[in-house]
Specification:
Blueprint lengths: L2 H8 L13 E3 L4 E7 L4 H6 L12 E5 L2 E6 L4 H8 L7 E5 L4 E7 L2 H8 L11 E6 L2 E7 L3 E7 L3 H11 L1
Antiparallel strand pairs: 1-6, 2-4, 2-5, 3-4, 6-9, 7-8, 8-9
Helix pairs in contact: 1-5
Length: 168
């Protein structure tokens, strides 16, 4: 077994899978943008139709007080034009994170995520998102009605999948 996977697995609390075997499914296509504002601004957030801290939609996740991950099916022009057309006065950084981040889908089961992260199950209610750690890997989790979206750095994908396989 890979040393990192062994170490991470041994530090994971015991999880009762309830007879299920949760499967991670890679999301393909589309783009992920990372938006960071110099400061939080509720008016600008509302104009851009961005979720508030700790909340997520299918097109955006608020992962910090002035930080979001934005999703689109292909052309990033829609997000770019909305952001560039926003009122001036707040510095921002917008970068394409598609090559840096991996998106994985997991069938909806807040109890499994609670057991793996130590966060309470209600942290994974529909429309919520959280930055946390699983298998010694930083992960952002967004919960939706039908599934969870896990986002990890591509550099840790192999380690995360090894850990996930051992955690089952």
């Amino acid at each position: 077994m890979h040393d990192l996977a062994r170490i991470a697995f041994e530090e994971t609390t015991e999880v009762d899978w309830g007879g299920t075997e949760p499967v991670l499914t890679a999301c393909t296509g589309g783009a992920v943008l990372h938006l960071k504002l110099a400061r939080a601004d509720k008016e600008l957030t509302a104009k851009l139709r961005l979720p508030e801290m700790g909340l997520a939609t299918e097109s955006a996740m608020a992962i910090g007080p002035a930080e979001w991950l934005l999703f689109c099916d292909g052309d990033v022009g829609g997000w770019r034009s909305r952001i560039e057309g926003a009122p001036a006065g707040i510095a921002h950084a917008l970068s394409d994170a598609s090559d840096r981040l991996v998106r994985l889908r997991l069938a909806r089961d807040p109890d499994i995520l609670s057991g793996l992260t130590g966060l309470p199950a209600d942290a994974f209610d529909d429309g919520r998102c959280a930055r946390t750690r699983m298998g010694q890997t930083a992960v952002v989790v967004a919960s939706f009605e039908r599934d969870h979206l896990l986002i990890i750095d591509r550099a840790y994908e192999r380690h995360f999948r090894l850990w996930w396989g051992r955690a089952l």
